């Protein structure tokens, strides 16, 4: 029949059939016949769609920053979306009559751009380059409860920031600065190592000096102790020598006194002997010589008597003709002389 069309929607497409200005039917995946001259069909895809984006934004210090990411969204409330955007199909039900369906992704991306720009423009470039994770979390939270998207009936399933990069010139400058910082850090590390080595060497040297000082102090204490010992020994030796000298002086004094006393005694004895000799001489002068000799011979031993006899014979040799001495007499004299020598030894 002329004007009768058949429409079959995919399971992920929400269809709204409007006839004579009223909604006749709506739902997902509908199949039906319709009269094209007085029917308007609206087909809103509800499947998830991806929208990649790249923004060139300006930071708080007027530097350009490129933000690259991707959004995943879907039409959660197709009735709301159909009120703001035109998803009407042509009469054959195959193509849209407007460009609104193709611009839906751009609308969602612009909302995301506003959220990102709001944060980036208050942040310096250096800080912004290090806040990818924070920016990603901020974008997800902002798009989840965004009033503009809620009015359109759009639900953001995922939002992801994949890259934050400066301009090539700025990147080279940052690389050079970072390289200089790394080199400076390396130089500082070398300096710190050298400084640490110097400090350690100084510490070791100070320890060695302290050890040497301690050793010298100990040696000085030992030397002083030895000197004290030597001084004490010298003092004791001097005291002992003084005592010995005093004892020697006392002994010498006693010996001197003894010698003097002995001399006095000898003098007395000599005087007595001289007196006795004098008296004896006086007495002997009146005694005959033969009597004196006889008295002297009384105390002589046989050898002395024999010698005295020989002396007498010698004095009277002219008167003596022949003198015979027997072997017995000589043997007795020699034997007596030997016994006396043994007794003396």
Overview of the molecule:
The protein has 345 residues and is of the alpha+beta class. It has helices at 78-84, 100-120, 125-129, 132-144, 147-152, 168-285, 289-297, 302-315, 327-344, and strands at residues 4-8, 13-19, 22-28, 31-35, 39-45, 49-58, 64-75, 154-166. The strands form 3 sheets. It has a 3-stranded antiparallel beta sheet, with helices on one face. A 3-stranded antiparallel beta sheet has the order 6-7-8. The chain is 61% helix and 19% strand. It starts with a strand and ends with a helix. Among the domains are: 4-166, 2-Layer Sandwich (Tetrahydropterin Synthase, Chain A); 288-344, no CATH class.
Brief account:
The chain is of the alpha+beta class. Among the domains are: 4-166, Band 7 domain (Tetrahydropterin Synthase, Chain A); 288-344, no CATH class.
The number of distinct β-strands equals 8
The CATH C-level class name of the domain at 4-166 = Alpha Beta
Provide the low-confidence segments as ranges. Answer: none
Largest sheet: 3 strands, antiparallel
The run of helices and strands is EEEEEEEHHHHHEHHHH
Strand order of the largest sheet: 3-2-5
Provide tags for this entry.
single chain, 345 residues, three-stranded antiparallel beta sheet, 8 strands, Tetrahydropterin Synthase, Chain A
């Amino acid at each position: 029949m002329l004007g009768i069309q058949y429409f079959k929607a995919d399971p992920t497409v929400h269809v709204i059939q409007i006839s004579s200005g009223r909604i006749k039917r709506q739902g997902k995946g509908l199949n039906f016949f319709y009269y094209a001259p007085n029917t308007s069909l609206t087909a809103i895809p509800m499947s998830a769609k991806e929208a990649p984006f790249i923004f060139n934004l300006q930071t708080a210090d007027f530097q350009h920053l490129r933000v690259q990411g991707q959004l995943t969204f879907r039409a959660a409330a197709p009735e709301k979306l159909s009120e703001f955007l035109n998803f009407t199909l042509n009469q054959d039900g195959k193509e849209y009559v407007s460009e609104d369906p193709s611009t839906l992704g751009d609308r969602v991306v612009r909302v995301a751009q506003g959220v990102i720009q709001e944060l980036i423009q208050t942040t310096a470039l250096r800080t912004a380059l290090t806040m990818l994770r924070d920016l990603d979390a901020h974008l997800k939270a902002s798009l989840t409860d965004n009033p503009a998207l809620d009015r359109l009936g759009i639900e953001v399933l995922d939002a992801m920031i994949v890259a934050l990069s400066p301009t090539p010139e700025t990147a080279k400058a940052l690389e050079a600065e970072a390289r200089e910082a790394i080199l400076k850090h390396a130089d500082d590390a070398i300096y710190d190592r050298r400084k640490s080595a110097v400090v350690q060497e100084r510490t070791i040297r100070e320890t060695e000096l302290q050890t040497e000082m301690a050793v010298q102090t100990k040696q000085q204490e030992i030397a002083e102790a030895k000197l004290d010992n030597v001084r004490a020994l010298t003092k004791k030796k001097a005291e002992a020598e003084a005592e010995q000298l005093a004892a020697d002086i006392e002994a010498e004094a006693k010996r001197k006194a003894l010698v003097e006393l002995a001399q006095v005694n000898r003098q007395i004895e000599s005087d007595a002997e001289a007196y006795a000799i004098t008296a004896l001489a006086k007495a002997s002068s009146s005694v005959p010589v033969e009597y004196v000799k006889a008295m002297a011979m009384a105390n002589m031993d046989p050898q002395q008597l024999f010698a005295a006899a020989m002396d007498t014979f010698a004095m009277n040799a002219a008167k003596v003709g022949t003198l015979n001495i027997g072997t017995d007499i000589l043997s007795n004299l020699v034997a007596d002389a030997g016994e006396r020598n043994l007794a003396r030894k």
